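Hey, resending since the last one bounced:
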Amino acid sequence: MDPVISRPGDGERFERSDRTLTVRVDLPGLSVIDISFEESFFVDPHTHDDHVDAFLVLEGEVEFTAGEETVRLGPGSVIAAPPGARHGFRSAGGTARVLNFHAPDAGFVAGIRRYRGD
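The structure tokens again:
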């Protein structure tokens, strides 16, 4: 297998009413999704038992649930939730953008492709 290269503008793009998701890497062991989202978008606190869910903040400020705490992170900050760790996120005001990593992918990209909501 060859390395996967994803240049700016590359990826499979999915536009929703309050967010845009661009799949940049889709491998069984790792998925990377570029997510740009509005203030109205949020992910309630949850856990995963089968993968690490990590985020690199690219733009704006993002409010993350980290266990029982809430932390506000800006560009360049990273948060990683290992299996079983409670986490969630929302914009801390305005549009925000993150790179979201799932290791292994655990079906995350397939779920994006199947989603038929907004």
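The chain has one domain: 17-114.

Sorry for the duplicate.
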